[in-house]
Automatic annotation (TrEMBL):
<protein>
    <submittedName>
        <fullName>Transposase</fullName>
    </submittedName>
</protein>
<dbReference type="InterPro" id="IPR012337">
    <property type="entry name" value="RNaseH-like_sf"/>
</dbReference>
<feature type="domain" description="Integrase catalytic">
    <location>
        <begin position="109"/>
        <end position="280"/>
    </location>
</feature>
<dbReference type="GO" id="GO:0015074">
    <property type="term" value="P:DNA integration"/>
</dbReference>
<dbReference type="GO" id="GO:0003676">
    <property type="term" value="F:nucleic acid binding"/>
</dbReference>
<dbReference type="InterPro" id="IPR054353">
    <property type="entry name" value="IstA-like_C"/>
</dbReference>
<dbReference type="Pfam" id="PF22483">
    <property type="entry name" value="Mu-transpos_C_2"/>
</dbReference>
<dbReference type="InterPro" id="IPR001584">
    <property type="entry name" value="Integrase_cat-core"/>
</dbReference>
<comment type="similarity">
    <text>Belongs to the transposase IS21/IS408/IS1162 family.</text>
</comment>
<dbReference type="InterPro" id="IPR036397">
    <property type="entry name" value="RNaseH_sf"/>
</dbReference>
Length: 405
């Protein structure tokens, strides 16, 4: 390319003859003449074989891509029996694949203050002991404000609707202090699926005056902000830590988040805790009354005077046996009411197969059992009891089977 530019400069600017240019540069006259005739610098082009392996395989590859545009190149090589270079095949398949599978462009989103908080569940694995001391796996609710990138998170006992609503309300009321315009979730079963929200979720959203949006199935990019926060927790919070209980987990998580939210975000180049001020200014205030959260179940108390919540059993006062009771469970308490009277109050157990018994309930059950065993049954006066015997000859008269005199 340098010789081509020099030849044209010597011939055009300095008016040097071709023979003189050839002698000066040590080139042949034909090379100089060819350079002067060409309109552009010389380029190397690899000569294609008249009947290359790709030319033979290309019709079969195109037929496969026409029916299966996203078929991997390794599968294509297997289907067409390719025996040549895999890199050469990959290069050619990548060149023609856009003709059958057009690219899906993604627009860059612009998040406004107070507009949205993205929510998701992160599962850290078996790291936290349950009530028995056995290491269990509990979900972590993660909520991120899309404008400020402020992260709020806490571990929950389960992923049922009542616990999810209780976790969202606690994070909204304590960490954000205001209500965003929208909450973005995926198709979590406790929130809703198939375009239908789970029971209790519409009432929660109505009390907070917030709109809940569910991302399309199999589309994690829709809530990419919270997905990246999940990865941040996995790589920066979890490694090297040990936890003695769910309370210890949440304590350590709160302490770490208070530091993480003060670091400069690599995308916004701002500190989330400072940008949260603008987020809060555009959010709505908290409702005057808290929303209904937790789980509420009405059932009839059986003779064993225990109720099940989340796979664990809790004792109820035996005086409610056979009567309808209302059992409410929050993140930290399990209570039962009978005719608006409190008949059970226990701390919430994390995990399954647990049992909490109030000693007062056991003592009262003994009293009731003794009263049942000692109750008297009136048998009437002593002596033989006369029993009336039916006259069966009446049947002989009706059916005509009696003896004939």
């Amino acid at each position: 390319m340098e010789d081509w530019a020099l030849i044209r400069r010597l011939h055009g600017s300095e008016g040097m003859a071709q023979a003189q240019i050839a002698r000066r540069l040590g080139l042949s006259r034909n090379t100089v003449a060819k350079a002067l005739r060409s309109s552009g610098p010389p380029q190397y082009e690899r000569a294609r074989a008249a009947h290359s392996a790709w030319a033979t395989a290309e019709p079969s590859v195109r037929a496969l891509l026409r029916s299966y545009p996203s078929m991997p190149t390794t599968v294509i090589a297997e289907r067409i029996g390719w025996s040549g270079s895999r890199s050469w095949l990959s290069e050619n398949v990548a060149r023609i694949r856009p003709e059958y599978a057009p690219a899906d462009p993604a627009d860059r989103l612009v998040h406004l203050p107070g507009e949205q908080v993205q929510c998701d569940l992160m599962f850290p694995g078996r790291l936290v002991p349950d009530h028995t001391g056995a290491v269990g796996s509990f979900p972590v609710l993660v909520m991120v404000a899309t404008y400020s990138r402020f992260i709020a998170a806490m571990m929950l006992p389960s992923r049922v609707t009542g616990d999810l609503l209780a976790g969202m309300w606690q994070l909204i009321s304590t960490s954000f202090g205001m209500v965003p315009r929208t909450l973005l979730w995926d198709n979590e079963a406790g929130i809703g699926r198939g375009g239908k929200l789970s029971q209790g979720v519409p009432g929660f959203c109505g009390t907070l005056a917030v709109k809940l949006i569910q991302a399309p199935p199999y589309d994690p990019e829709t809530k990419g902000v919270v997905e990246r926060a999940n990865g941040y927790l996995r790589t920066s919070f979890l490694p090297g830590r040990q936890f003695t209980s769910p309370t210890d987990f949440n304590t350590q998580l709160d302490r770490w988040l208070s530091i993480a939210n003060t670091r400069e975000h690599r995308v916004t180049h701002r500190r989330p805790v400072e940008a949260l001020t603008e987020d809060r200014a555009a959010m709505a205030p908290l409702p005057p009354l808290p929303p209904a959260v937790g789980s509420t179940v009405t059932t009839r108390l059986g003779r064993d005077y225990y109720v099940g919540v989340g796979g664990s059993s809790y004792s109820v006062h035996p005086e409610a046996i056979g009567r309808l009771i209302t059992v409410t469970s929050t993140l930290d308490r399990v209570q039962a009411f009978c005719d608006h009277r409190l008949v059970a109050d226990h701390p919430r157990l994390w995990g399954t197969r647990g049992q909490l018994t109030d000693p007062a309930h056991v003592e009262h059950a003994k009293v009731q059992r003794a009263q049942f065993d000692s109750r008297g049954i009136d048998t009437g006066p002593a002596g033989p009891v006369e029993v009336e015997v039916a006259d069966l000859s009446a049947y002989d008269t009706v059916f005509g089977t009696g003896e004939v005199a």
